[in-house]
Amino acid sequence: MSTPKREIPPELGDTFLWSDAIDAGVSPRRLRHSDLEAPFRGVRRRRDFALTQAVPAGPDRWRTSLQHASRGHPLSVRRAEHLERARLYRIAASEDSFFCGLTAATVFGLSATIEPRQAIEVARLFPERAPRARGVRGVQIRPWLASVETVGGLRVTSPATTWAMLARRLSVEELVVLGDAIVFAPRSKGTHPRPPSLGSLAELEEAANARGRPGAPLLRRALAQIRVGSASPPETRLRLLLTAAGLPEPTLDFEVRDERGRLLGRSELAYPDAKVAIEYESEHHRVDRQQWNRDIEKYQGYAETGWSIVRVTADMLHRNSEEIVRRVRRSV
Fold first, then answer.
1. To which CATH superfamily is domain 233-331 assigned?
2. pTM of the prediction?
3. Which of 55, 86, 224, 308 is the most core-located residue (most Cβ within 10 A)?
């Protein structure tokens, strides 16, 4: 007859250190029981633990980075799982370690492509050795190449450092997308003040030009194309598509008003002189009834004031970009 397993003291919580459990009187044999998992060495978690979809930095940034995806979206789930593993690792990590790369980008809610079970990225400053653990991509970095801050209890490279450190793994376009998101400041809501951006162009430039920065030429090329005012990755990619096709650079986040000065709406990209607005229609615009009604009212107001609208979907942007260029070129 098997011996019933002893309960883990509730004060340890759902996730705890092996050493804390031993100090609380839990036997090593109990800590190896199948109802507990070991995400990292020295850490135990109850298998019935419910993953909470934590939100980094702020709900607006989380929404933007997911391009209006719901919490059940695979990308949202992978990012939440990645953040959870970062928090688990932090429990037993050395105090001088910090998250970098795609993990830091995810903490800030930036648009980072996280693959299933992707290794979390952890760094230490030279001369300390890079961290080594299962499920961890360790990095050693020179002190003058990294600025570190704390976000949500996690030590991470600053947004500018995170951007610069990804130069060896991202294309120029991807670096522009990431840079646009860092310098973007979400709109004010009602009487609430405008939230600050994650970083400034000056901070990105300083990070790119740091002595010995790997990928510096690529970063400088990206820096020349980063703009303040792009609210989402698709908007950035749309702007880059138009300028690469030889069209004038559109104005970002433009307020369209009627002849009396009444605000009709804001358009992500616009050519004010030609009275052409370019609207990126995310899934959010289709499934949110309130947003759908607002769009209809806005577009009617635009038409009555002599504005034309070029509407772009995700499918068009990825599969039929030539048609987007053709429509915009014809309109402007």
1. VSR Endonuclease (3.40.960.10)
2. 0.83
3. 86
